[in-house]
Amino acid sequence: MKQLTTPLTEEAVSRLKTGERVLLSGKIYTARDAAIPKLVELIKEDRLGDLDLQGQVIFHTAVSPAGVGPTSSNKLEIEENMGILSDAGIKMHLGKGKISEKTIKILEEKNAVYAVMAPVTALLESRTLARRVAAFPELGMEAMHELEVRDFPVIIASARGTSVY
Question: CA spacing 20 to 30 A to 154: which of 5, 21, 87, 113?
Fold first, then answer.
């Protein structure tokens, strides 16, 4: 199993293969239906401030006292913004579910990947070392968070124009 630590380099991402299993460590960001459109608005307006997305992972989840678990990535608010987020530096989009051929091609053009994980909240909570609200606190558990994680188990679902689906 390959081990990766954030921020991800262009070279590390370009070597990932569809179907490859990865243990992900380091700081990652969370955002889902409510936060992603707000984040994209900040990107378009060049108002990211201290949010540095270069080489980062965005995990499609909410953060609650019960822990974290992936949400479906093929929701309009999430999937339609993967290209813009990749342009802003996101190298790995992490969630669950099948994404479209159009999105797979966009990720290939941006040297970004899509990874999935089973909805295993208890396991992920045990591998989350720290958390803080990074943006949009008014969204409650759907706010964008920065997590410090150790050995998050993921599978590369789309890389270099191919998909496991």
Answer: 87
Q: What pTM value is reported for the model?
A: 0.87
Domains and CATH numbers, the chain: 2-163 (3.20.130.10)
CB 94 within 8 Å of CB 72: no
Dihedral sign for Cα 13, 18, 122, 79, please: positive
Q: What are phi and psi of 64, to 5 degrees?
A: -130, 170
82 touches 111 (CB < 8 A): no
Q: What is the pLDDT along the chain (165 residues), one digit of tens a residue?
A: 999 999 999 999 999 999 999 999 999 999 999 999 999 999 999 999 999 999 999 999 988 887 888 999 999 999 999 999 999 999 999 999 999 999 999 999 999 999 998 778 878 888 999 999 999 999 999 999 999 999 999 999 999 999 998
